[in-house]
Amino acid sequence: MTTQSQSQTRDSESPVNETGAACYVYGIVPVDTELPEGLTGTDGSEVSLVRHGDLAAAVSEITPEGPLGTRDDLLAHERVVEALAAETTMLPLRFGAVVTSTDAVVDEMLAPHHDWFADVMADLAGRMEFTVFGTYEQDTVLREVLEEEPEVRDLRERLRDLPEDAGYYERVRLGELVVQAIEAKREVDNTALAESLAPYAVAVAPRVAAGEDTAADAAFLVDDRGRSRFEKAVDDLGRQWAGRVRLRLLGPLAPYDFVPPPEEED
After folding, report:
1. Cis link prior to 252 (omega < 30° from 0)?
2. How far apart are the first and last CA of the chain?
3. Using only C-alpha atoms, what is the Rg of the chain?
4. Model confidence over 185-219: pLDDT tens digits?
5. What confidence score (pLDDT) does residue 9 get?
6. Closest CA relative to residue 136, chosen from 248, 40, 53, 233
7. What is the Cα–Cα distance from 193 to 216, expressed in whole angstroms?
């Protein structure tokens, strides 16, 4: 589906209609959705709905001039998506979905892909995404590495009393060994996070570590009826990992991680 490609510019080649404007699409919602009052998107334009069948696309008008991809554009996109996700089932599109007009929204998106959109939204109905992100307590994890890795411990002891400018290659090697040990721990902890919370979620999507201090990171699709049990399970895991990993729960969020790849076009 070409509308999910991340077009990042508004230049002479951007899709525009005869009025000189293009149509930015945030996502798909049920046809009976009511927009929050005063909701605006990129360029500060008012968000509206383009309806077809049982579905509607949340859109706003943009001018085809200047860059599309500024911090304000990204924040506007997220603001619209999260505002709608808080009110109804929302199938979010990735940033940058632009077509020529509201007619094109119907002709190129809603009409040809109506059944696929409807099926995906049926799977997402009554469910929201939560992200659980853990960061290591550095002193604790380094102490674990020293206790569990004799090579690291011995090399560190040999370097302890050397001047800062001595043992350069040994210090590089020590750093490499510590990084490898933490990566192994991260793999174990990410698996533990997913397995601990999976019984309280409909689906799990592990994520790639965002930084060196990341202990675990995963997205969970949670049924509204099981939200309290899921949140309690996160609290329980947080207490279990206290002093070693700091857990942070984000959500509810639009279910980006659980929208399947677009159907193949013929």
Report:
1. yes
2. 10
3. 24
4. 899 999 999 999 999 999 999 888 777 789 999 99
5. 36
6. 248
7. 7
- The pLDDT, as a whole number, for residue 161 is 72
Tokens 């102490």, located at residue: 143
Tokens of 101: 């007009």
